[in-house]
Amino acid sequence: MTSATAISAESLVKTFGANRALDGVELSARKGRVLGLLGPNGAGKTTAVRILTTLLRPDSGSASVAGHDVLTEPNAVRRSIGLSGQYAAVDENLTGRENLYMVGRLYGMNRPDARKRAGELLDGFQLGEAGDRIAKGYSGGMRRRLDLAGALVARPPVVMLDEPTTGLDPRGRMDTWRLIAELVDDGTTVLLTTQYLEEADALADTIAVIDHGRVIANGTSNELKALVGGERLELVVDEAAEMDTAAEVLAGIGTGTPRVDTQSRRLQVAVNDGSKSLVEAVRWLGESGIEVHDVGLHRPTLDDAFLSLTGKPTEVSGNGATAGAAGSEGLATAESGERGGRQ
């Protein structure tokens, strides 16, 4: 690991019985940057984080964090990181302020500094008014924010955030994005696993896509989008009964199989000549008697790249965009770049 590299993993392998959770994972994050890990549920993201935070030992391979080997220097690694897992680790019998004060003291901070840092983080995570209330009465989103604050108490050089905004409302998510950006501006390295593709697009300098325990693509957000290529012709039909016919029209215009979302009556297909394809689509749909509610062109998104790489689109649920289970073989890898979506 070079002096400019804060997180490094080489050929990580981890099995649980017959399940090969990690199958030779390679990761690298430069100091003061955000490395985003994307992948379907069960792809191996959390297993990789648990190894990097010394909570699991790999079967083979090596990893270093902040210049310390996770196998031979676990205590040094733990002193160098802040961790927020998928589930909030909050003592419900303490107040929010007491939770953060306790973390500060465990990190070796003196009493005045621990109290001061607790107050700063409570204000930063919009928990100031609730800081002296018992955490048992906090909502799920408030507990999540308190857990995130706990990961930042000691201002660690490396912060591991495993799906940090799951369960947060839009305001909470935006506040978390702002705080992550501020951390990075101050030189902190962040490893971010997320199922919100717009989150990775906005925050990550580089993105590694993991599927079936392997890194199948690695690069900036723009590089991953470039793997998809071309523009996308998208339309919404008025009647669900017309979707099959509309799909046939788009199949004759586009370069691949149209994506069809029956719930929203939305269809999308990749095209080579965007403006020409748009005109042809409008004409053919009109001749077929299909009423179109909306039609347009857009450049590939990270969602398109995720679909292309894993073979599965993200699925929108009540909690936001989440990646479903998927499989993929023989996929290209983008060259890793230094900057990504965060400007």
Strand percentage lies at 25-35%
CATH architecture of the largest domain: 3-Layer(aba) Sandwich
The main pleated sheet reads as: 6 strands, mixed
Give the structural class: alpha/beta
Kindly report how far apart the N and C termini lie.
26 Å
**Approximate shape:** globular
Task: Give the beta-strand count.
Answer: 16
Query: Cα-atom Rg, whole angstroms?
Result: 23 Å
Helical region count?
11
Low-confidence stretches: 314-343
Helix content: 25-40%
Count of discrete structural domains = 2
The CATH topology of the largest domain is given as Rossmann fold
The level-1 CATH class of the largest domain: Alpha Beta
Provide the spatial order of strands within the biggest beta sheet. Answer: 6-7-8-3-9-10
Oligomer: single chain
State the order of secondary-structure elements, H for helix, E for strand: EEEHEEHEHHHEHEHEEHEHEEHEHEE
What would CATH call the homologous superfamily of the largest domain? P-loop containing nucleotide triphosphate hydrolases
Overall average residue pLDDT? 83
Organism: Actinopolyspora mzabensis
InterPro entries: AAA+_ATPase, ABC_transporter-like_ATP-bd, ABC_transporter-like_CS, ABC_transporter_ATP-binding, DrrA, P-loop_NTPase
Membrane topology: Peripheral membrane protein
Keywords: Antibiotic resistance, ATP-binding, Cell membrane, Membrane, Nucleotide-binding, Translocase, Transport
